[in-house]
Amino acid sequence: xxxxxxxxxxxxxxxxxxxxxxxxxxxxxxxxxxxxxxxxxxxxxxxxxxxxxxxxxxxxxxxxxxxxxxxxxxxxxxxxxxxxxxxxxxxxxxxxxxxxxxxxxxxxxxxxxxxxxxxxxxxxxxxxxxxxxxxxxxxxxxxxxxxxxxxxxxxxxxxxxxxxxxxxxxxx
Amino acid sequence: xxxxxxxxxxxxxxxxxxxxxxxxxxxxxxxxxxxxxxxxxxxxxxxxxxxxxxxxxxxxxxxxxxxxxxxxxxxxxxxxxxxxxxxxxxxxxxxxxxxxxxxxxxxxxxxxxxxxxxxxxxxxxxxxxxxxxxxxxxxxxxxxxxxxxxxxxxxxxxxxxxxxxxxxxxxx
DNA sequence: AATATATTGTAAGGGTACCTGACTAAATAT
DNA sequence: ATATTTAGTCAGGTACCCTTACAATATATT
Lengths: 172, 172
What we know:
- 2 copies of one chain form a homodimer.
- By secondary structure, chain A is mostly helical.
- Chain A has 2 domains: 37-116, Arc Repressor Mutant, subunit A; 118-172.
- The first copy, chain A, has 7 helices and 3 strands; from the N terminus they run ααβααββααα.
- In chain A, 32% of the residues are buried.
- The structure holds a DNA duplex (30 and 30 nucleotides).
């Protein structure tokens, strides 16, 4: 049986981490251009990330991959089109489908954004970095299991795959 | 100089952690009542948390503590009133002020929510829990510094204090 | 070939989290 | 007694998501 106090300690720190990160994010956004409130893991950012992995997906494919409704997907894609980050074109083989492609600007934005190493990792020693990586691996796997078991059968396996793909690509 | 590869590994895991947590949160919310999309660290949840620490604050005090505009604060408070989580009453000493107080229902919701230990910590050993706590302490402090130095002078010190207070209360 | 069904996408509308700007009401300062 | 500061409200806007309803295209069935 695990030590409850130690768990509570860690949980507290994790909650704190969540709150502080949120705060730090806000600060960062406040500094930069006013309109840029994209977190890269939500909404338009998610789309960009998915396309950076696999360009030329249909809206439906994007929706499925990212576990969004078709309507939300359409909304974000349209916003990205307005910003010239992606383009829409009707598929020739199946004219119901719309193919979404990154523009150069879009691709650059996606890779720029996702290749940043957070500053706060500079305060950790090599040993601590190893420990953290190891611990997060365990936690992430546990979360995947929780997601997988609790809800709709395999719908979320896809999201898991997107995340893992993204992480893999991130190292190249 | 820190090992860049190790940093990148850890950063990747951290990003993954962020994404997976987001996912897991969604799943959790989807299971429960449909209307309940509160993350406890945002909007209405933040207010509840602050009041659970110190009941009977004015709207202005809430806004300052939580680094929200007075307008956003008013919006969230009004929503909470509608849900019977808090009550509004004009202060007798200074009739410009509105005092916000938790109802029993509100207090219960706040404490219920914030006293949960995330399941995923069950997969860690005692040693790993210690390591994680230690690492997150360093990271959080680093983030506090970043926040503190980069932006408006001392506005964010208050937020830091709220978080720390919350964490402290969390152990009682 | 003609009709029925399934798939992709759009339109409209709603809810939550925030913000800015404009404006009262009450308290305090001059 | 007037001017200013402080607390709060109202209106309106953006981003993120969802649901319900509906049009167009593709495929399956008769």
